[in-house]
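user: can you give me the structure for this one chain? tokens are fine.
assistant: on it. calling the predictor now.
[tool input]
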Amino acid sequence: MQDDTCIISIKPKDRQNRARDTVLTLIMWGIYIYLWIPLITFGAWLVGFERFYEIMIVYGGSDVVMNLLDWYALVILIIAVCIVSWLGINYRRCHNNDRRYAAPATRAREINEFFNISETEVDRARTSRRLLIELDELGCISEMSYYDYVRADDSPNYVELE
């Protein structure tokens, strides 16, 4: 049978382990970026970075760029006005309209037939705050335990490995 356990997050237990993991991650990213430097240098050479330096610094091309910054600022302003206008239109059109619908509740009889448990067990499972389900080797429910409390260390979204 396939194991359906999904590990969403493995959290280091203490601050020292988290610090170690963070430092190792930063070191590995640094090494990764360092290994890309020759390819980046080769790409800059291919596209003519030396020519860029010559035009911008030696021949004063930066003055032309400064004159174009006004036009770039105008274009960015026009784009921002368009986006904000579109946002306002959509806000007025949709802000009070909840178009999501809840899925219809499954009837206790259907759950009963699918899992082969009684309708009273289904009702009790729906009302309990904590439910422990044990499965047999075929994936069928072998035992259900009901609790009216939730433990502080229960994390329904995580499977923690030790």
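assistant: here you go. The two ends are 24 Å apart (CA to CA). Helices lie at 15-46, 49-58, 62-94, 108-115, 119-127.
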